[in-house]
Design a protein that fits this description.
Elements: E1 3-6, E2 9-12, H1 26-42, H2 48-63, H3 69-77, H4 81-84, H5 92-104, H6 106-119, E3 124-133, H7 148-151, E4 155-163, E5 168-176, H8 181-191, E6 198-200, H9 208-216, E7 220-224, H10 229-232, E8 242-246, E9 249-258, E10 261-268, H11 269-285, H12 291-297, E11 303-308, H13 314-333, H14 335-339, H15 348-369
Helix pairs in contact: 1-2, 1-15, 2-15, 5-15, 8-9
Length: 374
Amino acid sequence: MIGKIINGVFQSIEKQTYEVDIKSYGLFALNEKLNNHIFRELLNFYDFEDARKLYVIASLRTMFSDIKNEHLKHEYDTNFISKIYPKCALSPNTISSFLEKIGKSSSKMEDFMNKRLEEFSNHSIVIDGMLKNNTSETNIFSEMSRKSRTKGAQNLNLIYAYDINAQEPVASSVYPGNMLDYTAFRDFLRTYKIKNGFLILDRGFDDKECKNLMREKNIKYLMPIKINHTFKKFNLKSGFNFTFTYDDDTIRAKKIIINNKYYLCYKSTLTEMVEKKNFISRAHKKGAYDEIKLLERENLFGLIIFECNYDLDLKDIYVAYKKRWEIELLFKQFKNVLEQNEANVQGNYRLLATEFINFFIFNYALQNKKPPLK
């Protein structure tokens, strides 16, 4: 039946369709301007439909940070992104199946990351690890970590590589939450083609095997070291003959060479004053001021020592490490965004695909919101 006659007038019963013809534009325009190169990069490794869906999901989760999978379709339909990237199926079941498919092909994700690392070769790269909550019981990555006792939650261990100059992540990988940072870093070095670069590391990556791998790949590295009794034997009182300024602070510096390794020593004038003041104040409040103990520690106030396997410029090293901390602050700023609605991602493959998308979200977020580095 195609219609009825009502009061002598034929009325078609064809069902009318209604399309969303008013779509939000501002957030999409900014995101597209800054990040659409990622879509082009994805096309080198994925077919058009999969590249489009990865880009669209990451873009929507960037624009609407607390969005759930069941709401993605609504935001897609009412956003201008659906005009530029049309016919993207985003029902919850479709998304789940899509993530499963993407996650099963981990080699494509690795190839994508390796291509980016190739483009950023010879740059200064920060390597950092992060524990992220995950309470799923159906993936192999969710494990009790060193922080689980205090936070009461299982974690994933994420390793990220960031380019200091471009101010964006270039590679990432997922590991079980109970895996030590340096163990994960060994696999990271073997998986990704980091060659002739300069890696700025944290203390957690201090490992002999990691250092051997970096030497084999001709990678320069820099990491802060714990000032233990061995270094207290060296002259840390004098010899700081090189000076420079950084952020209204005057830095004194010197190099110590031991067994073909360079130990770069820095004393911050401002930090030295603050640490000395705090030490004396704490001792005074406890009624335990001891000048001998003060003199024993005086050489360590404001001191930081880095280990490096190449002879590099003292000021350049210090500035590079300070930039590392600026990037880490940005990373912490967006950690909560990356954890939104993902604490219970089920299944190994879906989790891998979700973290692949999070890699783009972090990149997008940095491009959209980051302040310029100094």
